[in-house]
Request: fold
Amino acid sequence: MDKKHTSLETLEDLIRIQSVNPFFGEEARGEGEVADYVEHRCRQAGLEVHRQPVSAGRENVIAELRVGRPNNALLFEAHMDTVSLGSMENPLEPTYADDRLYGRGACDTKGSLAAMLYAMEECARDPEQLSSDVVLCASVDEERAYKGILAFVNSDIAVTGAIVGEPTYLGIVVAHKGCARFRLETRGKAAHTSVPHEGDNAIYQMAEVLRVMKKDVESGLARLDHALVGPPTVVVATIRGGTQVNIVPERCAIEVDRRVIPGEDAREVLDGMLDILRERLQNSGVEVDVEELLLDWALDTSPESAVVRRAQQVASGLGLDDSLHGVAYGSDASKLQQLGGVPSIVFGPGSIAQAHSKEEWVPVEHVERAAEFYVGMARGFGRTDDGA
Ligand SMILES: [Zn+2]
Reply:
């Protein structure tokens, strides 16, 4: 059997380290131990490494390989946190079967991180081959609120193109959706259910809200469309109301996830939905309290940008699909592109279908191919004789 690619050994190490995002409960250990691992590996490779504090006990790891070309710097970015271990069998024990490697984070997104570490080490070994500076940011909190990448965008480290590692099945992703998540609450008046006329039923109020959401908000979305990511969507995802069976409910709340497409602004979308609700409900006496949960940007990177053109060259050189794709899920890339002005793509091993699932795995070959792809990106990014 061929010798195992070193990126796979790295991925095994990463899977063994529990790094569940602290949002997912008390057993979650957060990113600290993976950060130690990444820092150690990068120091061993001779890279300049520092930690960027993001929130209490949580830090991005930033490794820099400087070859004197700061005006032409490529960023590799991958998050260190995972979703909860859930009902996955042996989530922290890397297991090979059928040319797959199983484990929590295998595809989302430790496979990408392992392949990026491989690329950083290769580049550090042979810096003469680089046409750009290369930076790795292993970030925290992608699975919750993107705090890690937001901190990086606000740092003084300037990059001119970025590759964000997420499971794209080795496809080049230049567009994805963002979201506007919010909570709506109706307030009524509690009363004993034997005298309901003395109360005001918050659940019935919410029924009016839901009718408007379905009839006036959701139905209008099909008219909008984007060539790579399709139309926007909206889902009323949770509902909670009432306290017990003999009390007229005083409160009812829903949580809504509206996915926005490139060209839409999450805040404007949210404001627009609230306008529709207020207008349709104005004669019903129903009022809603609004709480924003998360506003996130869509990704919309120009196909003409240097990072995209280079990605297509490298992909076709490796015999991979070099067409451009859009996906429905969000990633750190949109923050880099929309807030940092950094043209960004998403590229990584594995499929989003296995992310967050109880059967998370990544095709072994994907990890190796992604590692080669990242090396190719670093070695030719911004080279003026590209394609010559
Ligand atoms: Zn991810």
Summary: The first strand starts at residue 48 and ends at 55. The radius of gyration is 23 Å. The CA atoms of residues 208 and 283 lie 11 Å apart. The pocket of zinc ion is lined by residues 79, 108-109, 142, 166 (CB under 6 Å).
